[in-house]
Amino acid sequence: MKSIESVLHEHRLFPPPAELAADAAISGMDAYKTLVAEAEADYNGFWGRLARETLTWKAPFSKVLDESNAPFYTWFEDGELNASYNCLDRHVEAGNGDRVAILFEADDGTVATVTYQDLLQRVCRFANAFRRRGVKKGDRVVIYLPMSVEGVVAMQACARIGATHSIVFGGFSAKSLHERLVGVGAVALVTADEQMRGGKALPLKSIADEALALGGCEAVKSVIVYQRTGGKIQWNADRDLWMHELAQAEASTCEPEWVGAEHPLFILYTSGSTGKPKGVQHSTGGFLLWAAQTMKWTFDWKPTDVFWCTADIGWITGHSYITYGPLAVGGTQVLFEGVPTYPHAGRFWDMIAKHQVTVFYTAPTAIRSLIKAAAVDEKVSPSNYDLSSLRILGSVGEPINPEGWMWYYTNIGGARCPILDTWWQTETGGHMISPLPGATPLVPGSCTLPLPGIMAAVVDETGQDVPAGQGGILVIKRPWPAMLRTIWGDPERYQSSYFPEELGGKLYLAGDGAVRDPVTGYFTIMGRIDDVLNVSGHRLGTMEIESALAANALVAEAAVVGRPDEITGETVIAFVVLKGARPEGEEAVKIANALRAWVSKEIGPIAKPRTFDLATTCLRRVRARSCAGCCVR
Ligand code: PRX
């Protein structure tokens, strides 16, 4: 957690570039304030107008927001639409079928170009294949794929037939995949033989096989496999099918399934402060509206833009700003299979120049690691690349430190591109607090002001507003269309986690601390107020890692805390009381390595503790998160 003094100390102000402001979707602070006032004066009218203007509806909605069953809100409920129609068909019908939808760059640098017409046909073929395999509206499909056009195709194909997708990030273990397959009751699983990352082929199908072998997912009738590498895999003829063979056999047109606006578009698991990860359920209409609207407002999207979001489709950022937002507005985007450091740490800058990227959206961890790489090796410095195509930069997933911000602004943006520090969450569906590139003067490290229609506030533990300059709890005071609808299968947990009684039961509790600047009113996020860690922008629950460790036969008890880290924001530190004697030297290293591998197997490599303290005898103080453990030795 940051200190308030350090936050309020920052006074550098960067006004929006005049040229960008002149032509922006929201041009100048007065235009921003007009929209904010419109939302305040007529909340339903404001959201209804945006929904009608931004999306194409099969059947119009008669009511905007229904609060009668709060906090289970519904939006545009009797309206009907289809997300894939909005992302694909309507652009083709408008004569933009030849526009490039995706510039895919593989790990090895090979580029494939996919137009809207191509993408629509690929989605239709795959949607038909799903239907032929009996997958229908309301069914759940788990997708465990690498960053690929096929990933986007699989998600859009689900949306086309009204199936609800649940993506599992390719870095999760068989056990995590299994939990999610069982959790959502999947009828089909889409995976790949292997994934390519940093020049290495990593298994996916064999992990999927392992997950299915754990039992309890007999409802999974089809395992559809994208052939990425041609690597050797086990084949189960009863259920395994090649994606390309299925698609080849199908027609390239497919009537979309028109669904109600509240129909669940997807379920995405994320870590909470207690227990198992939560299946965050999103709607079709409200989610898609906000994904598209924020493309226009936050990223000031224009038809000439080449947009690049470096997130993985396995996280919410990839859902909103790869699969849905950029396609809903008919944009051209870069999709990258690999990692920023392969074959060298200048890869991002090289790709920006090569694809003439205009809007670049990445995470502070990536920026910090590339700053370090450039400091060590001049050859990968951004100054060696022509980055003049850029006009807007974005940051997401974790706090960006002012030094990282200034480097990004100066060295990547050439001191002419606004940086949008976008604060949001898996649960919020899209940006909530963010500067607008043609309106908001920027302050390094601050996500500035809520987007129009988003009623963000900082309150105390009883739900009362706190004065500016005083830290407090970040809440959203009114429902918004893209908010999660529930936690899959656990409505009570939805209510108690996000609308706690202590705050009056009506405020959405984000789980972050925040402070507002007394002069500008700008928000700065102080960090999580619960036991959720943010490691390289990945959200991890301490309890989840503790339970994984406690399940190991050597472990009597475990406690996990986050330690600040220069590059990754936080790292995971585990304090473990072993059942046997406290190990020394080599033996301690061996056990720590075994426990690290164990966590990797139980959850996934992203959750591996960086260091272990096996000399711990009492975890009371660690558990209270009152110390970094140095006094427990
Ligand atoms: O703590 C906040 C942090 O990431 C959390 C949400 O994580 P997740 O659901 O995985 O979504 C990440 C991508 C949207 C938040 O509760 N966070 C996200 N963006 C920022 C941030 N912290 C500070 N500044 C941000 N811009």
From TrEMBL:
SUPFAM superfamilies hit by this protein: Acetyl-CoA synthetase-like (SSF56801)
Q: Which PROSITE patterns match?
A: AMP_BINDING
User: E.C. number, please?
Assistant: 6.2.1.1
Which Gene3D superfamilies does the protein's record reference? 3.30.300.30, N-terminal domain of ligase-like
Q: Which UniProt keywords apply?
A: Acetylation, ATP-binding, Ligase, Nucleotide-binding, Plasmid
Matching entries from Pfam families are given as:
ACAS_N, AMP-binding, AMP-binding_C
Give the record's GO CC terms: cytosol
Any one GO molecular function term: acetate-CoA ligase activity
Fetch the InterPro entries from UniProt. Ac_CoA_lig, ACAS_N, AMP-bd_C, AMP-bd_C_sf, AMP-binding_CS, AMP-dep_synth/lig_dom, ANL_N_sf
- What are the residue boundaries of the AMP-dependent synthetase/ligase domain, all occurrences included? 94-480
Domain (AMP-binding enzyme C-terminal) spans 544-613
Q: Which domain of life is it from?
A: Bacteria
The Acetyl-coenzyme A synthetase N-terminal domain covers which part of the protein? 32-87
One Gene Ontology BP term is:
acetyl-CoA biosynthetic process from acetate
As for family, the record states: Belongs to the ATP-dependent AMP-binding enzyme family.
Q: What is this protein called?
A: Acetate--CoA ligase
The gene for this chain is acsA2
